[in-house]
Protein 1
Amino acid sequence: MDVATVLLQLVLSGILVGSVYSLTAMGFVITYRSANVFNMAYGQFVLFGAFIAWSFIGSPQDPRFPMPIALTLTFISVVVFGLVVERLLFRRMIGRPLYSTFVLTLGILIFLRGIVMLIWGPSTHVLARTVPQGPVYLGSIVLSKEYVWSFFLAVSIALLLGLLFRYTKLGLAMRASYDNQVAARCLGVSAKLNSQITWVLCAVIATIGGILIGTVNGININLGEMVLLVLAVVLIGGLDSLIGCIVGGMILAIGTNLVSYYISPHIPGIDSNFSMILILLVLLIRPSGLMGTRPIERV
Amino acid sequence: MRGRRRIDYAADIAVIRSGRQWITVVVFIGLLVILPMILNVTGNMNWVSFLNHTFIILIAVLGLNIVTGMAGQISLGHSAFVMLGGYGVALLTIKAGWSIWLALPVSALVTALITLVVAIPAIRLKGFYVAVVTLAFFYIAQYIIRSLETTGGIHGLTGIPSPAIAGLTIKTDFQWYFLLLIITLVCILVSVNITRSRLGRAFLTIRDNETAAAALGIRVPMVKLRAFFIGSLFAALAGGLLASYVPVVRTDQFTFWDSIWYLGMIVIGGGGTTAGAVMGVAFLRLISQILHVIGASGWIPLSSNDSVYITYTIYGLTIILFVSFQPRGLISIWQKLKVNYKRWPFGV
C-alpha cells in the first residue's frame, strides 16, 4: 500500500471509531449541560449498561432472547436504572455545590465498579451480534461493517439530540436549567421532570455506547476506563457542546490511529496515553475547548 | 451561659486552648504510645503494620486536605505525587547512595517543584478542569516511570535502605511505629498551624469564593501554587516513607483508586480541618481493616476477588451516604455532640 492509501485508511477508520466515541460522550455532555453534573462515574454507566445488555442478549454460543425482545428488555431496565439513580442520588443534589456532586459521582464510580464485578466477575464477556459484522471494501481500503453501522447510528442519534435541544420546549427547559437552575424553576420549568429525563437519556446513551463498543472489543472491566476517552472527547470539543462531541471524537480517534501507526514503533505505549496528552494540551492552550462557551465570572 | 471567654485573639486561635484540651491531647498521645505495646504482647503484629500504613496514608491525606479541603482545588492526581516522592527516595538511596534522612527532604522538594509545573496549567483553570489536569498528570507520570530504564520499568525498584537513628536501624514494624508516630504528629502540628496562618485563611477564602478573594487582595494564582506546593510536600514525604517501609516501589502501588480513597477520606472526615482529615482516615481505614478481618476469618465464604469488590462497594456506599446525608463529615457530628453535651438539655 502506498502512503496515501495508508493515510486514508487510518483517517477513515478513525472517523468510524470516532463516531462511537462521540456518541458515548454525548451522554456525558447531556448531564453536564442539563443537570450540571460532571459525571466521573460515566464509564461505569457504560460498563453497567453493556453488562445488562449482555445478560439479556447473551453470548454467541448461548443467546438468551431474540434480538428485538432483548433490546427492549435492556432499555427498559436501563431506563429504570436511570430513574433510580436520579431519584436516590441526584435529585437531592439539585442546588448543592458542584464539589459535592463531583465527589458523589466518584463514590458512585467505586460503588458501581464493585457491584458490577460482584455480579458479572472480571472475565471478558463476548456479546452476540447486535449489528451486522464483516469487512466492507472501498477500493483498497478495508473497513469493518459494525463500525459503519455504528457510524450511522451515532450520527442519527446526534441529530435527534441536537433537534431536541434546539427546537423543542423540553430542550429549551433543559438549556435554561443549565444556565440557572433557580431562575428556570421560577419560570415554571419542572426541576424534577427535567432531571429525570436527563438521567434516563444519559443512561440510555451510555448503554448504546457500551453495546457498540462491547460488540467489537468484548465487555470487561476495562470498559469502565472509557471515561478517560470520554473526558478527552468532551474537553477537546468543549464541555457543553454536542457538535463539539463529534469534532472531539473524530480528533481523538484519528489522532490515536495516526500516533499508533507512525509514533508508537519509536515510543512504545504512547498511543494508549495519547488521550491524556491531548487533554493536557487542550487545557493548556484553550481550556473551553474548540466549541465550548467561555464562562463569564460573577461574584 | 457557657461559651468562649477569651480575652485576646492569640488565645482564641491557639492550637490547644484549655486545660481540658491539654489533658485530652496528652491522654490521646499516651494511648497511641501504649497501643503497640499491648498489640505486641498479644501478638497482633498485623495490626501494628496496619497502623503504620495508616500513618503514612494520613500524612498523604493531610497534604490533599490542604489542596482540596482548604484551597478547594480538587486533585485526582495525589497518588502521583506520592509515587514521585517514593521513586525519588528510591533513586537517591539506591542509585546515588545517599542517606535516607537526606533523600527524604530532597525528594520531597523535587516532587513539589515538579508539582509546580503541573499546577501552572491548573491554576489558570477552575473546578473540574483542575481535577482533569491532575488526573491526566497522574496517567502521564505513571506512563513515563513505567517506560524509563532507571526506574526499573514495571518491576520497580527494590532494596531501599531503612532509616537509622543514632546507630539504631529501624527494621521491625514495632520500631517503625514510633518513628511514624513522631513524624505524623509533627505533620499534624504543621497542618494545624497552616490553618491558623494568614496563608491558611487565604486558602479558605479562595475555596469559598475565588473572585471575592481576588477582590480582597489575595494573589489567587500564587496562593494556589503554594497550596499545591505544600500539599505535594506532604504527599512526597508519605511516598518516601512508604518506599523505605515496604521497601519496594512499583507503579501499581500507586493507583488512581488511591487518589479517590484520599478524596473520600477528606469528604467523610469533613474537608478543610485537620481533625476532620484525621477522623476520615481513621474511619475508612477501620472499615477496610474490619472487612479484611471478616474476609480472612472465613465466616462468610468469599473468594479473595470478591472481598476486594465488596470493599469497593462499601467504600463507594460510604462516600455516597456521607455526601448525601452528612456533607460536612464526621467532624460536624462530633462538634454537634460536643455542643449538645455542654448545653444539655438545650442542645441543637
Protein 2
Amino acid sequence: MSLTRQEVEKIAHLARLALTEKELVEYQEQLSAVLDYAEMLDELDLDGVEPTAHAVTRSNVYRSDTAEPSLPLEDVLRNAAQHQQDQFYIQSVLDN
Amino acid sequence: MNSLRDLGKLTIENARNALRRRQVSSEELTRAYLERIRSLDDRLHAYLTVSQDQALAQAATADRRIVSGDDTPLLGIPVAIKDIIITRDVPSTAGSKILKGFIPPYDAYVTERLKQAGAVLLGKTNTDEFAMGSSTENSAYGVTRNPWDSTRVPGGSSGGSAAAVSAGLAMGALGTDTGGSVRQPASFCGVVGIRPTYGRVSRWGAIAFASSLDQVGTFGRTVTDCASMLQVIAGYDRRDSTSLDVLVPDYRAALTGNVNGLRIGVPKEYFIEGIEPAVESAVRSAIAVLEGLGAEIREISLPHTRYALPVYYLLAPAEASANLARYDGIRYGPRVLGEDVIDSTKNTRALFGPEVKRRIMLGTYALSAGYYDEYYGRASRVRTLIKQDFLNAFEDVDVIACPTSPTTAFKIGERTADPLSMYLADIFTLSVNLSASCGLSVPCGFDEGGLPVGLQLIGNTLQEATILNAAYAYEQAAAWHEQAPPLSK
C-alpha cells in the first residue's frame, strides 16, 4: 500500500480530523488505491511543461487599497458558536 | 391558464408569455409550484429547504413589477438554488452537518442577480456534501431520487436541482459544476444543464470546493430556458477576482437553430469500452441529426483524456483541503467542544461525512511537504497538457460532441462501496473543468429502461452561445424535452 498507517495518522492530525480506528484502516486502503491509480501520471514526459493554476490565464488582479464598507458586525457574529462583545469567543490558542 | 395543469411541462418561455399577458400571476404560479412540491417532494427529496414565505413575498413584488410594465427574462418565475450557493436569511448547508443551522447574512452574487431579475426563489436543493460526489448520495440530509426511476440516483452533485427541474418542481435551477456536477445530473434526469467557462459566472457566495475548478451553472427543461437562466447570472463581479470582465452576449438571440457548416469534433478517446451500448447509440444518433442539419462531423483526438481522472482527483481534493480548513466551528456551524482548541476543532470536524473526509485526507497528503511536487505539482503540469489538447482541437472544430456520462442513472447504493467506481461517472465531464472550455448536456434519448441519455457539447473559452445554439438546433429536431418523467404526474 502507498500509505503507511503512521502517515495516515499524521495527515489526519494536519487536517484536524479525529478518525476512528475503522476510518484509519479504511482510508489507508482507499487513499492508497487512489494514489496507486495516480501513478499513471508518471508515464508522461513533463519536461518543460508549466503547471496550470488557472483554467483561464489571469495575472494578478488588484483593487485600490481603500477601505470600503463590509458586513455589519451584527451579521458577522450572528452565526458564531459563542461571541463576546464584538469578538468571536474561543478557547485559548497559546499555552499560558 | 390550462398550462397550470401541465405544470410538469411548463417552460420559462411559456410562463413569461402568460405572465406578460396577465393570464396568470406570479403568486398563482408560485402557489401552484409550492403545492406541487408539497405533494411530490416527499418521494423525491429534491429540496432541503422550501422558503415559502420569502417566495410568496417575492412573487408579490414580481406581480407589482409586471403590472408596472417591467419585463425582465425571469420576472415572476419560480426557481430553485443548490444548497452550495448562499441565500440571505434562508438556511444554506452545503449538504453538510457542519453547516447545520447556518443562516447566511448575505446573498451570493448569483442569488442577487436572480432577485434583481425578479425570479422567485422556491428553496434550496439537495447536493452531495460540499459538492463532492456524483450521485447526491453523499448528502448528509438524505438522497434525492431520480424522477424517471425512484430506485435510482439523480446524479450529482447538483442532483436536487436537476431532479426539481425534471419533475416540474421548479422552472429553472442553479447548480455548481466542479467536475461535471451540473452536466452529469442533467444527463441522468433528462434536462439541459450548462457549465460555463471558468470566470464567466461569479463564485462570490458559492461555497468553495475547488477554487480553480468550481463554476455556477444552470438547469432548464429546454435549451432556451437554460440560456435564459445563464443570461441573468453571467457577468463581471469585482468581488470574485477570477471573474472575467468580458461582455455577456445575448444567448437567447444566439439560438437561431442554424448549424450549417458548424464543425463538430467527435473525440475517439471518448468512445471506449465501458460506455453502455444504449448511451453510445443515442449519442451517435444525435450527432447524425446534427450532421443532417448541416454540421460537418470530424473525428478528433484528445490524447490526454485518460489522465483527466487522476489529475482531477489530485487537484480537486488538494484545493478542497485548503478551502475546508475554515470549518472549525468558530464563526459558523455547530461547535463540538473539546479540552482545547485543537480538540474542539477535531471534534467539530467529525461532523464531515466520509467522502469529504476522504478528500480532505487525500488533498492534505498531496500538498504535504515532500509530496507536493510529486502529486500536486505533477498533476498541475498534466493539467496543462489536457488544456492544450482542447485548444489544439478547437483550431479545427467549433464544438466537441460526446456522451455526458458512460452510463445512464445507476441504482441508489450501487457504487457507494467503491469510491473509484463512483469517480468514473465523471470521466467525460472532468476535462472541461481542467481546461478553459465550457460544456453542456442536452437530452438525446432513453435507454431500454426508459432512463435519459445526455449528449455533451463542449465549446472553447467563452463560446457558450455556440454550444447553446448547437444544442438548440438538435433539441428542436429531436424533441426529447416534450416527455416528462413518471414521478412528476
